[in-house]
Structures are given as C-alpha cells and as structure tokens.
Amino acid sequence: MPGVWTLAEFREGVINSVSYELLAWGRSLADTLNVELSSVVLGYEIKDVETLFDHGADTVYKVDDKRIEHFLPDSYSNILFSLVKKYDPQIIIASATTYGRTIMPILSTKLNTGLTADCTKLEIGEDGTLLQTRPAIGGNVMATIRTQTRPQMATVRPRSKKPISYDKSQRKVIVPEIEDELFKSAYRWIKFERDESTDLPIQEADVVIAGGRGMKDEKNFEMLYELAKKLNGVVGASRTAVDMGWIPYSHQVGLSGKTVSPHLYMAFGISGAIQHIAGMSSSDIVIAVNTDPDAPIFNVADFGIIGDATEIIRELLKALGDENE
Amino acid sequence: MKICVLIKQVPATDKVKIDEKTGTMVRSEMEAELNPLDMYAVEEAVRIKERLKDAHITVITMGPPSASDAIKDAISIGCDDGYLLTDRRFAGADTWATAYTLSAAIKKIGGFDLVLCGERATDGETGQVGPSVGSQMGIPVLTYVSEIVELTDKYVRVKRAIEGGHEIVEVDLPALISVVKEINDPRIPNLSGKLKAKSAQVKNFDAISIEADQSKIGLGGSPTRVVKVFYPKLTRSGQILRSKDPQSAAKALLNFLKSKEII
Amino acid sequence: MRMNEFKKVDEKVVKELRQITSDASVIYEDKETLKNYSHDEAGGDYYAHMPDVVVKVENADQISKILKFANAQHIPVTPRGAGSGLAGANVPLYGGIVLSVEKMNRIIEIDKNNLVAVVEPGVVTNDLCKKVADAGLYYAGYPMSVETSFIGGNVATNAGGSKVIKYGNTGHHVIGLEVVMSDGQIVEFGGKRRKDSSGYDFIHLFVGSEGTLGVFSKIYLNLIPLPGKTVDLLAPFKDIETAISNVGRLMIESKTLPSAIEFIDGISVKLGSIYNNIKLPFQDEAGAYLLIQYEGRKKEEIEDLYEIGGKALMSGGAMDVFVADNRTNSEKLWRIRRNWLEGIKAFDPYAPTGDVVVPTDKIPQIMQYISEISVEYKVQIPVAGHAADGNVHPAPMKPKKINPLEWKDISEEILDKIALKAASLGGAISGEHGVGFIKKDLLKKTKPDQYVFMKKVKDIFDPTGIMNPGKLY
User: Which ipTM was obtained for this model?
Assistant: First the structure.
C-alpha cells in the first residue's frame, strides 16, 4: 500500500520542530489507512534523523549531499519528484513554512496533482481519501477540500498539532540513489543573514501574549515578556497600553494596530473593545483574564478567568517554573 | 526589460457570504478591489521601471469582466498595459488550473524577463499560484522576496524573508518573484494617473486566444474539489471561571493550556 | 457652593443601589476599577476626580429609581458614556454616583420602513454604523472617534465629526429621545415622526446638554440610504493659507459637495507619520494638507466627482492630488488624520486638544492667530480640523523644560486665548467636544446673555442640582 509522506525541514544544522508536528498529523493519517509513514529529509550533514522516528516516522528517506546544503527549489523539487515517481506515496504533507509553501506548489505542478494550502485539519474520509480543512478569508470561512489526483498534497499550518512520541518505528533510513543531473541548479545561493533582533513580528507569531489597562503599569509588562518567552510567543497590547506608553506601537493589536491570528491568544487585563477584538478574533484559541465579568473579551474567549490579571500571571509564571523543574 | 505582474481582484469586504450548498462565494453585488498584497508587486515593478527607464510593464489577471478595474488600478500607478483572462470556461479553477491558465497567457504574450506577483491573495490565501506559475513555465521561482538587491538584464539577486532571517539568492532571468509587504510602500495614484487609467484599453483573452488545453482549465481542469464550506463559530461559548484566588486560577489556566496541547 | 450640601455615599446608599440593580452592577471601594471612571480623554490627573460609586444601569426603570433616590438623598449623579470626551463632561467633580450606560448597548430596532434606528445610549456608534450599513442604510452622524464613543455621549455633546458639511452634526440626526428626568419621571420627546410643529422643540434642548438636564434612555435616529461608494482625495499645499483658501473655493468652483474636507498641518503630518509608520506624499515639502471625501452611488459618479474636484484643487495650487478609491489606500490617507491626537500624544502625553469653531471664511484669521500665539509662547501647536465647517483643533505641545503642573496653566491660557479669539470672530469656544467643566468660564464669558437663560432652564429641569453638578455652570 502506498504510504504517507511528510517533508521534514533540515536547515542551519537542525531539524525544524515543525517537522515533528507534521509527523503527528502524518501518524494519524497513516494509522487510519494502515500504511507506513515516511519522512523525507534533504540537506547536507543531516543530523538527528532518529528523532523523526521518535516522533512518528516508520522510515526516513534521506538525501544528504553538499550540493543541496541550502534550499534550491529546482534541485529539491527535481529530487522529490524522482522519489515520488519511484516510491509512489498516496499523501504528501509539508509544513506551511516558507520552505513548504515554496516547494509544494512547484512539486505539485510537476506532478500534475492538486495541492491544498495551510490546512488546520487533516483526516481520512470514509472512502479513504484525504479531507483537507482550511480557513479562508481571514478565518471567516472554513473549507474542506478533496484531491482527485494522486498523490494528495497539502501544507499544514504550524502549531496546529502537538508532536507525539512513537515507539513502534521500524527506524529504517533509506538512502535513495539520485542522478547527478538532478542536483544541478539555476540558483546561486549567496548567504543567510540571521536576524539580529529576535523579535518576531506579532502578525507572524503562533502565540501572542497580550496585555491591556488591567496590567496596571509598564513594569508588569515584564511578566508578559517572560510568559511569551516560555510559550515561544510574542507580546501584544491593547491600544490603551500603547497609549499609556507601556509598550511600542508595533505591538498594538486591533483595527488601528496589527491583525493577528495566532494559534493561541492570551489577553491579560484587556476588556476587548470592538476595535481590539477585530484584530484578534480569528485566533484559534483565546484565553482572557479580566476583573470585569462583563468585559466583551469574554465573548470571544475559549477560556476565561474573572480575576486580577497581574496576580494570576504572576502565579502562572511560578506554576510554569515549577513544572520545568 | 519586459516585466509581467500577475494580479487578482478580491472581495473588498471581510464579511464574505458563502453559498453553503455549492461552496462558492456569493460574488453578486460584492464590492471588489485589487488584492492589497498585489499592490506591492505592482509598486515594485513600477520602481524597477523608474530605475531602468527602458522597461515595459504588462499586468495580467484572470477573472470576470469587472476585474478590468484591478488592471486599471495597476495602470494608474504606472503600469503600461493589461490583459484580462475572462471566459466562462475559466470559472471554478483551483490554484493548479489558475496557474496553468496564467502561464498559458504569459507564454502567448511572450518575451518576459521578469514575472512579479504578491505573496498571496487575501481571499483564497493559498500563496500557491505564483510558485506554480513559475513551475509551469519552467523558470526559477523566488518566493518571499523582501528586497531586489540587484537587477541586470542577465540576472536578479534578491533577499528572501524566511524564518529567522534573510537569505540572499541569485538566478538568471527570466524568473518569477513573489514579494512580501516589507519590500516597499505602495504609492497612492495621483489624479493624472487615474485619468490615464480610465481611458486605457484592457485587452481580453479567452480560452481560445491563449491556446489553452481545455482539459486543464476551470473547474474541470482542477485536481481539487471543495466538498464542504462552513462558517466557524464566531462567538465562542467558552468556559468562564471566577477566580477564588490567584493560585487556583493559575492552576486552572495551566490545565487548560495542557488540554489544548500547548504545554 | 452646593458641594458641601451633597450627601456622602455610604454603605446604605450602596445597598440601595445594589437593590435597584444588582450586586455585580455596582462598583464600590474597588479603587482600581473606580479610577477608570474618574476621567475622560482630556488627560492629566488634574482633570480627574474619583467617583464614590459606579452603577452600570440596564434600563430606564433602573435609571428612574436611582435618580428618584439620589434626588431624595441629594447625591450628585454623573451620567457616563464611553469616556472618550475631551472636556471633562463625565468627570464626577463632586464624587457621588457615576451612572454608566455601558450595559445599555442594545440596538432596539432598525426600522427600514421609516428609516429610523431606535437605540440605547450605550451603543458604540461605530457598531451602529456597521449594523445599519448591513441593512443598506447610513447613519450620517459619524464622529471621528467612532471606534470607541457611544451614541449617548454623541447626543449629549452634540458631537460633530468629519461629515458635518454635508449632513450636519449629531443633533441633525436625532428625531426623538426618551429622557429620565432628575425626579425619576420618564418622558418621551419626539419619536419616529420626522416633523412636529406642536410646541417647543425639546429634543434640541437636550442635545448638547451634557447630562445636566436628564439622562437619555432611548434615542431615535434618522437614517438615510447608504451612499455605497466613496473616494478620498489628498491634496498637499505649500502652506496653510493656500490650503485653507481652497476649502470654499473647491465647493464653489466645482459645484460638488464633499462629505468631508479635513485639514491637517505639516507638523501634525510629520508626527503622525512617525506614530503610524506611514509616509504621505510631499511630506517634507508640504505645509498643510486637505483630505476630501466624496460619496456616490456608482463608480461613474465617483469618477466624475474626483475628476472635477481634483482639477479644481490643482488649479487652486495643490502640489498634486492623490486619489484613494479602495479600502487600503483610503485607510492609509485617513489613518494619520484619525490618529492625529494619538500621534501627538505619543510625543507629548500632556498636549491638550482645543476645539474652536469659526465661520469658514475666518479660518485663515484663526490659523494666523494660532501661529502668533505659538511664537509668543514659544510652544509648538499642531493643528487639524474639519475645515469645511470652520472647526479647528489646536494641540499645544509641552516644551521639555516646563513641568506638567505649570504646563496645565500655560496650556489652558493658550487654549483660552484661541477660544476667545474664535468667539470674537463670530465663532464659538466649543465646536463639537462640549463645555464640560474645563470650558465653563469661557462659556459664561462669551455667551453672557444666553447664559442667564441656560441657567433658568437648568433650574426647571433639575431644581435640586444633582444632575452632573459643576458642568456648564
């Protein structure tokens, strides 16, 4: 039976953690279909392949070559194309990162098959085909899509699933023969410049920890940064907090600031004026903490606590610290 | 230099109505606009033209007859001419079929050194059509471009905004570039630009004139099918707790985060 | 003077208020929360005063019971909307009860047959605009602070905004009011009818009364068909004089009626540009900008309007004319104007906002005066305003070396001088923000005769003086 493939990302000497999230999706599909789950990884001096097994892969296809040390869309797609032709997977999924969103459309075009972008849910339908669900139009609408051609291909939104641990793997690394011709590239890779500032723009973050008037003062915002760091997120703010000068404008969420749709949005001491809610309502999960039980933010919250934001965040940080010890 | 910019007209509202039976957008009487993210591609093309002096910018879009407005918007800030691919047979195309149709038109017009497009459209939000067009045409694709570092009549060197930093890459022309917001600040057209665009003639192409393989266009040529469209619930019926003391509130929060697999 | 006579709010009063409403509706002793109700957007702690208790009322009946009770006990009552005012009208100067209408936010009815909206006072005006637009209708009383302000506050201050030239200010759209009087009686004035020549026009006595006569519990608003399409023109000019000279000229020359003609000076644009991270064309050369909006039903109509209007501006000396006919560009043009005050406050949180109005042809004179004052006091004064209706907002910025308390006196002196000048030019000391307590001396000074009658009216409606004491008078 043709298997399920995930495209793992190996860059700058590490396997990107999204590769493990992808395996979690792949595992549930492969289990339903009762087929093998394989991860494909391309790069040079690839390390930590065994971690892919630990997170769900039965087998790994590894192409390790100096000539593909960097992401070259033509070489990568040519090599992947040859692998697909040879091993014939029924499903290929990649993460909706800049890598996945570039390589997948190029590959699917070469393969003459359909591709669905930025899915938040993947499942196998009763007829054994892949049902791909994705938000569109700013999260206003969800669409479920089926691919009529093979393989069925999709990119998956990062942070849409948590990695799993897996101990039934065959732990088999397959190193396919690749023709020299396929390594030829029209791209001249020059260099990678790592961003000095580690600040991710809030629109791109998967986790946004936001504070408002209820955080009371600038000093308390430090707790938001601490929590954001722990959850790999960034700090956002209401207009009031920005107006108070507690945080720069670039962090403002809302109509007059940035629109965000992270996987997790935590609102501490934000009442949720219309203009604020318009900037965050398409977040996947919303948590709100506010003293006012009538605060409109609770209407859009999946989980809310009526209470003092600064006290609760302080305790939350303590509790998170204890967990890690 | 011959530059082609691919653009799309999108609904000018966030409140899109969906026919839940057919899964298609109810487009009638809907306000439309040039995809805001395409404005960056249009602006970049115009800046290239201003730099190189000897450049010609052609805009291409696929859509209903009214999509010619989007082309006129591009002309109003400095693009030279535009083609509208409009034909009932194009309707219902997914990203694969759209990319095929656009690349057929690009081939038909011919001679482009550079194809520019936006990162994605604000309605479909796939970001797949650009790279797919490049793949159809067999030319190098440069996605997430935040700066054109160097452009000659032979090659282009760009900066790509990727996770954790920027990558600098170079390819020979022709090439396809999809740009991100950071690349520029699109200008607002002035009165003389608007008046020029108003009188500009937009050329129409149909399936025959681009010599398209009829089996690869429109809904029939699309490998994917929408099987269901639904509205996600907008107000959430979340669980709201009253905090007895900060410790237990923090504990409850922690448990919720765990239940959602965040920690 | 009456201050000493007011009864202090104690546990018993709070218990009564809780009985009338509910435990959750009354805020008492929670300093942190009460503080939110102690000020408006006028800024500066010196313009704030703590309430003793806040009651979030839910209906006319509760308001009536509270007023009846407060009247009997002689406790001051300050009605409050969104708190976005700029004249201190909702600051509880004598403590007492703040009556917040934030929970009364129901749109009771959008009557498509009569083109009337019936709303509660706590409805966010922006929400109302959106809701009626869904029904193909238009509420034309668009105040610029639309994202936060409540319709109740708009009516209480007779708010203006940017579309007054075409549609008039808030008062023009109010056709009926249900008012709870100071003794608790609920009286309805007007209604869904558009005409009424039977007796005094009380509605427009209540419009702009700033909570000194009664509390609105229901508001009937006039709606019109939605224009559908808009286009915005941005015209940079080399200096303020040329920009202002184009305001009247544009309408006369082109025979078009814009829905807005906004003015913003070069300094404001530079500050706003940094705050909003947007660069406007000609930003380094232009001394002033006009931002013009036209509305129309069809694309062709819009094209016709911007062509005629744009050409008139070009011949009037505009450096160029930029045309925004889509959301993205339109938002880009309006953002700096809409966030004008925030842009200034980002650089100087102490900048107060003036609000004066003059006959349109006197704008050059008032602008000239503002620049003289700016030189005299060595203070930078950015100005923006609704040029078409002669309403300008000067915002003097505190020089670094002056301390905030000294600045309060100096900035008040500056704004008072500008306001008095405006009045002497045939204008008024407040265009759209109201009088509150910050401008009450100016009111008395500039309208001495009317003031006597206003006071008499006040005594009829509120004989015990519990309604928003310290405001207007």
Answer: 0.81
